[in-house]
């Protein structure tokens, strides 16, 4: 819903209804991820996409019927047709589960609050029953870190969802979760799509050098919240890094330690250490490599710089296990030369690490182009509860 939220909120505020189609489950080479959405307006306008063009026509017709009141909210599966691969379906060979519902001020009174939270980078999640008993389908909970609004019609399911959704929200994950019809975690018969609107993942770029501007630019392009940090005020200026969300003048290791202590560093945080100066890099990496949760740590430098930095870190007491968390020299081997090309190389490595990619040409691979970590089939509430840490569920 995030990608169409500004338009949806505008129509909602004007009292105009809309049909909202949301990808809630994907399998194999599906073109869009869960949460991708498309709107059908009361004036016939279509906004957004659920499949990059494959099934939009069919979804539009379904949404139009729901807006007219002739069809109920529904969960529809789209895949390749056995008879004709170019019939209504996904020619890429993937499978999408799309939930289509009517949204207006009566059916979704919390939408304005949700849109405001997303704009202000505050965490909120929406849990919608997308399949199960007819009287439950379309009911939803809106879950904030400290409060809950709405109901699914079952107190037991509401209680289970409150804990499970907060765990997903803390991890920044969306998921299709299965429950029993009365909220039993080990049951079946009811599916809930949880869409998490967590703050954007962070990218902290250390070192106010020319490469940092390009890395900040591509981080912003990828939807990350970008910070550039350097201890030298003459270089760390907003005018040199207009694409960054903030520029901080501070010794890197002190800034990172303060951010970690404040709870602003997590598994969705990436660090790009670009100074390749030991007086900055070594104390910074000592802090970074010992943090319990961090998504990516990359350090720039030649092979010689890498070996010198590695030995300095070992001499400082950093273990081999901790060193293994560092990508150095930073980036994938793309033959990059310019700052912009190097930024693409760094971003490619961050993406590959996030999704389990190997950085090889797709033309050299056989089978599905997306790894198994890229797909989001429904999970049982019991397995989800076991997978989430106690801290995440607190």
TrEMBL record:
Source taxon at top rank: Bacteria
Region (Disordered): 355-377
Xref: InterPro entries: MoCofactor_Util/Proc, XdhC_CoxI, XdhC_Rossmann_dom
Domain XdhC- CoxI: 11-79, 118-180
Record's protein name: Xanthine dehydrogenase accessory factor
PANTHER family with a match to the protein in the record: ALDEHYDE OXIDOREDUCTASE MOLYBDENUM COFACTOR ASSEMBLY PROTEIN, MOLYBDENUM COFACTOR INSERTION CHAPERONE PAOD
Residues annotated as domain XdhC Rossmann: 203-350
Organism, as annotated: Actinomycetospora cinnamomea
């Amino acid at each position: 819903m995030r990608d169409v939220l500004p338009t949806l909120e505008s129509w909602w505020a004007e009292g105009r209804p809309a049909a909202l189609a949301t990808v809630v489950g994907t399998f194999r080479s599906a073109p869009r991820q869960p949460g991708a959405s498309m709107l059908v307006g009361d004036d016939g306008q279509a906004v957004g996409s659920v499949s990059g063009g494959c099934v939009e026509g069919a979804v539009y017709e379904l949404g139009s019927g729901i807006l007219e009141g002739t069809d109920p909210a529904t969960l529809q599966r789209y895949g390749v047709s056995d008879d004709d691969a170019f019939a209504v379906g996904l020619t890429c060979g993937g499978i999408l589960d799309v939930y289509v519902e009517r949204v207006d001020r009566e059916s979704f009174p919390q939408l304005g609050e949700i849109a405001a939270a997303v704009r202000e980078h505050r965490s909120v999640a929406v849990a919608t029953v997308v399949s199960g008993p007819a009287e439950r389908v379309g009911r939803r909970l809106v879950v904030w870190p400290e409060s809950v609004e709405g109901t699914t019609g079952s107190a037991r399911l509401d209680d289970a969802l409150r804990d499970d959704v907060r765990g997903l929200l803390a991890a920044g994950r969306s998921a299709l979760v299965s429950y029993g019809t009365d909220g039993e975690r080990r049951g079946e018969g009811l599916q809930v799509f949880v869409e998490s609107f967590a703050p954007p993942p962070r990218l902290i770029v250390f070192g106010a050098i020319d490469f940092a501007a390009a890395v900040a630019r591509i981080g912003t392009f990828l939807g990350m919240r970008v910070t550039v940090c350097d201890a030298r005020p003459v270089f760390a200026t907003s005018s040199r890094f207009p694409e960054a969300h903030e520029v901080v003048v501070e010794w890197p290791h002190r800034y990172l330690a303060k951010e970690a202590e404040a709870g602003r560093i997590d598994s969705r945080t990436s660090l790009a250490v670009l100074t390749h100066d030991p007086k900055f890099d070594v104390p910074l990496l000592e802090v970074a490599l010992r943090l319990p949760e961090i998504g990516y740590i990359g350090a720039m430098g030649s092979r010689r710089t890498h070996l010198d930095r590695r030995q300095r870190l070992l001499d400082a007491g950093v273990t081999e296990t901790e060193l293994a968390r560092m990508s150095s020299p930073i980036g994938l081997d793309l033959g990059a030369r310019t700052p912009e090309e190097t930024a693409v190389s760094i971003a490619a490595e961050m993406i590959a690490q996030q999704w389990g990619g190997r950085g090889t040409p797709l033309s050299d691979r056989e089978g599905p182009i997306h790894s198994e970590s890229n797909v989001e089939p429904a999970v049982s509430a019991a397995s989800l509860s076991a997978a989430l840490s106690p801290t995440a569920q607190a």
